[in-house]
């Protein structure tokens, strides 16, 4: 089946195009704010479904809806002693709609529906025959998603399209496919039901109300990690165990991200900051959350206890490496290895360090993607920055660097991030792995930076002062970009 990149997105109030009706298949849809009257898409309950039909029988119409509503109550938890009043805000509701209390917990609803929804897809990925003869729901869309997975190793892989084709389940489909493609499920004798359950729980524990730090970002990082694992220098040296760790770390590296950065948690005396003593607060939380899901699903329960604990420890080492505040530490060590030609991938410790660097690159590779993809990510991460700044203004807190929408633009934020964080890292990665992919990433990075630079005079030109704050923001020391970069990583 040939992949169709012009798949129509059909709101409920539009007629179905004839070229769609001419084939046997399904129309998948999701609600929009214009249809349901929500003023802000972030306040909209997630509603997805599909209509399937048989063109030979115009009277046969099958409809299924999946309606999952976030029923959390926005408000404050009981005050904690010594905490800032903002401490009690439930971060899961920062981008969501408030609804009445007393309903069934949304977490349980989402997990129940998601696990049931993916039982069928797991059979399809294993090549099992489809028992239902009805052409229902997303089968055509899943078929196109499977076609996309045939090119999952290409750098221009459109994760946004893939997420639409999988009905918002890109992380589950992509990670499961990669684990199967590398032969890791069979090699480590993993229970496929447990693997599927684990991935569903991981996906559901990402807060998709976040504009940037959500399950789609995790899927994008996992796809980038796969591209790096296929690079000759790593592909010839990494063991299957290394690959398993790399994929799991990529999928879980931002698990349960609250949508605000570490300095925000610290200055509001959030309990996570106290728990991890203001050190790699978010990364420690992501790691511990991942370990909790591994134990909840008993994914590695069949392995000796020592091996299972070893996986958890090394998984933590990889995730903790994504702390952008330690960027210079890792980059300096990486540069020293390259200068002295002392990186020996025959040693397990050196292989693990190369995985750490690969994950760091995958985590912030958005500026190195083609412009159409990179621009979307830039807009999403800046929206999350500015949303944090709005919260800080509302509660009369000091506004974090680059979070003030009145003093910064998307262009100025991205130019600074590319200059001080992305370029130095990917320049060293190109020294380590001098391949066509590395040169392609550096090429996209240069073009994207030039595109944002071209937009910056337009943004600042509206001011009569000419050389305004956004322009000067890109000239500040790299420490400022690193402190704020922790929110983007």
How many beta-strand runs?
Answer: 3
* Tertiary shape: globular
- Beta-strand proportion: 5-15%
Percentage of residues in helical conformation: 55-70%
The quaternary structure here is single chain
Unreliably modeled segments: 1-5, 23-48, 52-102, 129-138, 462-479
Structural class from helices and strands?
mainly alpha
How far is the N terminus from the C terminus? 37 Å
Biggest sheet, open or closed, and with what strands and sense?
3 strands, antiparallel
Mean pLDDT level: 79
Number of helices: 22
The whole-angstrom Rg is 23 Å
Give the spatial strand order of the biggest sheet. Answer: 1-2-3
- Listing every helix as H and every strand as E from the N terminus to the C terminus, the arrangement reads HEHEEHHHHHHHHHHHHHHHHHHHH
Task: Characterise this structure.
This protein has 489 residues and is mostly helical. It contains 22 helices and three strands. It has a three-stranded antiparallel sheet, with helices on one face. Strand 2 and strand 3 form a beta hairpin. The radius of gyration is 23 Å and the shape is globular. The N terminus is likely disordered.
Topology:
Layout (H helix, E strand, L loop, with lengths): L17 H4 L3 E6 L2 H4 L9 E9 L2 E12 L37 H20 L13 H11 L9 H7 L4 H12 L2 H4 L4 H14 L9 H15 L2 H4 L4 H13 L9 H6 L3 H5 L5 H17 L7 H16 L6 H14 L7 H16 L7 H24 L15 H23 L3 H26 L7 H5 L4 H11 L1
Antiparallel strand pairs: 1-2, 2-3
Give a summary of the structure in a few sentences.
With 489 residues, this protein is mainly alpha-helical. The protein has helices at residues 18-21, 33-36, 106-125, 139-149, 159-165, 170-181, 184-187, 192-205, 215-229, 232-235, 240-252, 262-267, 271-275, 281-297, 305-320, 327-340, 348-363, 371-394, 410-432, 436-461, 469-473, 478-488; strands at 25-30, 46-54, 57-68.
């Amino acid at each position: 089946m040939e992949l169709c990149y012009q798949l129509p997105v059909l709101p409920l109030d539009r007629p179905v195009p004839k070229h769609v009706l001419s084939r046997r298949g399904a129309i998948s849809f999701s609600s929009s704010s214009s249809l349901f009257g929500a003023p802000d898409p972030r306040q909209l309950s997630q509603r997805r479904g599909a209509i399937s039909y048989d063109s030979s029988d115009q009277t046969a119409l099958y409809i299924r809806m999946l309606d999952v509503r976030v029923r959390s109550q926005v408000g404050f938890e009981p005050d904690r002693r010594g905490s800032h009043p903002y401490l009690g805000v439930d971060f899961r509701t920062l981008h969501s709609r408030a609804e009445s209390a007393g309903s069934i917990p949304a977490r349980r609803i989402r997990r129940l529906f998601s696990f049931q929804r993916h039982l069928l897809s797991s059979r399809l990925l294993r090549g099992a025959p489809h028992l239902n003869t009805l052409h229902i729901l997303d089968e055509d869309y899943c078929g196109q998603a499977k076609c996309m997975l045939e090119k999952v190793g290409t750098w221009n892989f459109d994760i946004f399209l893939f997420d639409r084709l999988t009905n918002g389940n890109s992380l589950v489909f992509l990670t499961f496919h990669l684990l199967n493609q590398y032969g890791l499920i069979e090699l480590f004798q993993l229970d496929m039901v447990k693997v599927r359950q684990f991935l569903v729980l991981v996906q559901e524990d990402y807060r998709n109300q976040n504009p940037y730090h959500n399950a789609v970002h995790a899927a994008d990082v996992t796809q980038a990690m796969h591209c790096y694992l296929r690079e000759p220098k790593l592909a010839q040296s990494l063991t299957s165990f290394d690959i398993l760790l790399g994929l799991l770390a990529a999928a879980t590296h931002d698990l349960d991200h609250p949508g605000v950065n570490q300095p925000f948690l610290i200055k509001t005396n959030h309990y996570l900051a106290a728990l991890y003593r203001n050190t790699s607060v978010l990364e420690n939380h992501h790691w511990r959350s991942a370990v909790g899901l591994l134990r909840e699903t008993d994914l590695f329960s069949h392995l000796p206890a020592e091996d299972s604990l070893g996986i958890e420890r090394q998984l933590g080492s990889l995730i903790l490496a994504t702390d952008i505040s330690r960027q210079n530490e890792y980059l300096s060590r990486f540069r020293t290895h390259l200068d002295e030609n002392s990186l020996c991938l025959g040693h397990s410790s050196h292989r693990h360090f190369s995985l750490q660097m690969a994950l760091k690159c995958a985590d912030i590779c958005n500026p190195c993607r083609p412009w159409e993809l990179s621009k979307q990510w830039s807009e999403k991460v800046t929206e999350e920055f500015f949303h944090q700044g709005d919260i800080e203004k509302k509660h009369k807190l000091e506004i974090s660097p680059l979070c003030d929408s009145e003093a910064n633009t998307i262009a100025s934020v991205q130019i600074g991030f590319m200059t001080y964080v992305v370029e130095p890292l990917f320049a060293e990665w190109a020294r380590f792995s001098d391949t066509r992919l590395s040169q392609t990433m550096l090429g996209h990075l240069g073009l994207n930076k030039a595109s944002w630079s071209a937009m910056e005079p337009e943004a600042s030109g509206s001011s009569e002062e000419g050389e305004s704050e956004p322009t000067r923001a890109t000239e500040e020391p790299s420490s400022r970009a690193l402190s704020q970069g922790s929110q983007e990583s």
